[in-house]
Amino acid sequence: MSLAERDHNVIWHPYTQMKTAALPVPIVRGEGALLFSEDGRTYIDAVASWWVNLHGHAHPYIAQKVAEQLHTLEHVIFAGFTHPAAVTFAERLLQILPRGQCRIFYSDNGSTAVEVALKMAIQYWNNQGTPKKKIIAFRDSYHGDTFGAMAVSARSAFTAPFWSFLFEVAFVDVPVSGKEEETVKQLEALARGGDIAAFIYEPLVLGTAGMVMYSPQVLDQLVEICQQHDILTIADEVMTGFGRTGRTFASDYLQHKPDMVCLSKGLTGGTMALGATSASEKVYQAFLHDDKSKTLFHGHSYTANPVACAAGLASLDLLLKEETQQDIARIQQQHKTFAQEIQALSHVKEVRQQGTILAVEFEDGATSYFSDLRDTLYSYGMDQGVLLRPLGNIIYIIPPYCITKAQLEQVYQTIRGMQEVVSGQKQHPRPDLTMLHD
Ligand SMILES: *Cc1c(COP(=O)(O)O)cnc(C)c1O
Questions:
Q1: What cofactor does this chain's UniProt record say it requires (predicted)?
Q2: CA–CA separation, 131 vs 116, rounded Å?
Q3: Which of 31, 399, 409, 413 is 20 to 30 A (C-alpha) from 338?
């Protein structure tokens, strides 16, 4: 039996309709931006394995640091105990995080980093005897798959079965170009209404919504309004953190800084599962009390896992290297040139870029040609040896920073081919997914 068939017998995959999905691609090795499959094929990982990988797969430096940590201390309880990796990593994160962050709370992934921030925000008000009921979020946002994170995310088909279990959230429109004033008005009205604990947002780029982008100027305005009305602000930098937007954090583009920041994905360079929520002095102070009920009662068995922290420290070393910063600048430049070219082509509705993130949105009408454009584009990319996961009619690139100039050119070539498929200049068979199953 092949690995994929063995998988099919025992595994339940994320975001996968197990009845109709094609068999998974068995990956046996990774190196740089490349993934190698069991049957000898090579794929360029143009989506950084779900937006987590920064420096390439199986990076020798991260591997070495992780191995050293494994031989020294693999894990220790983090209540009443500490260890060098957690402390050093927190010190270094606070040095590079947006101004005003003073504490790091570790958890396991992006969703838990968001849960922690929401709990901090809600309890912040409780601890002061002025409980507040509402959270504000962007209508199309995505903050994770646990219940609190789902509650502050878009009410979409993905969460429909759970709607009645999600707490109420006041949604405002994403302030995309031309709609800025509307969002500002919506937020101002909510802020004046009172009873708002916090505003949570994906700064500059809403990933899962389809790499929807908006300007730092309008976000700065929104954060300022929150600060004027004593509303806590939570920057969910789970996707945008660690150089993705061209600066270390998307919040670095703003004058007004958040009260809390959520981190995961690139936090360990894509090596280990780890989440972190940072908090400002103001937030932290609200939990210091002789009354023990004011404690933040939250924690996970693997809080601040030393191996994950070691991976994070190693990834940070690599991120801050001059070569990596040059790679980030080069990717931005390459994207810019390609964006100009592709946006002139037919059936391309919009091209968006923020730093190393590039999104190409095909005409909505294109989807009517193919009932399953997404699957067609995905399978076209895989046939070309390029891993791109379209979000509906939107194709995007979030590469590991080590992707070479030539590899990135190959990704662009694949997107050019996709444009030809969408515009009908090129035929690509609709993937017959059912064939792959008995
Ligand atoms: C991916 C993501 C999350 C959730 O992170 P997980 O590690 O998948 O739980 C939260 N917020 C944003 C902005 C994300 O992109």
A1: pyridoxal 5'-phosphate
A2: 17
A3: 31
DSSP one-letter code for 429: P
- The first and second tokens of residue 42, run together, are 């090579």
pLDDT computed for residue 438 by the predictor: 35
| Topology adopted by domain 65-320 | Aspartate Aminotransferase; domain 2 (3.40.640)
Q: State the pTM of this model.
A: 0.96
pLDDT at residue 254, rounded to an integer: 98
3-class SS of residue 53: coil
3-state SS class at 45: strand
- Domain-wise residue ranges, the chain: 3-60+322-423, 65-320
Gap between the Cα atoms of 366 and 159, Å rounded: 26
How, if at all, do strands 134-138 and 170-172 pair? parallel
Do residues 137 and 155 touch, judged by C-beta distance below 8 A?
Answer: no
Write down the catalytic residue from 43, 106, 124, 142.
142
pLDDT for res 366: 56
Find out whether 50 is annotated in a ligand binding site: yes
Of all protein residues, the one whose alpha carbon is nearest to atom 11 of ligand 1 is 143
List phi, psi (to 5°) of 324.
-65, -40
DSSP track, 368-404: HH-TTHHHHHHHHHHHTTEE---BTTEEEE---TT--
Please choose from 263, 265, 354 the residue to mutate so as to test ligand 1's pocket, defined by most ligand atoms within 8 A of CB: 265
d(CA 107, ligand 1 centre) in Å: 13
Give the closest residue (by CA) to ligand 1 atom 6. 110
Whole-angstrom Cα distance, residue 221 to residue 254?
9
Which amino acid, one-letter code, is at 47? V
Is 125 annotated to bind ligand? no
With contact defined as beta carbons under 8 Å apart, do 349 and 364 qualify? yes
**Joined tokens for residue 299:** 């924690």
Digit-coded pLDDT (tens) for 355-394: 999 999 999 765 555 557 888 999 999 999 999 999 999 9
Task: Determine whether domain 3-60+322-423 maps to CATH 3.90.1150.10.
Answer: yes
Give pLDDT < 70 ranges for the chain: 365-371, 432-438
For 220-232, b where at least 16 C-beta lie within 10 A, e where not — what string?
bbbbebbeebebb
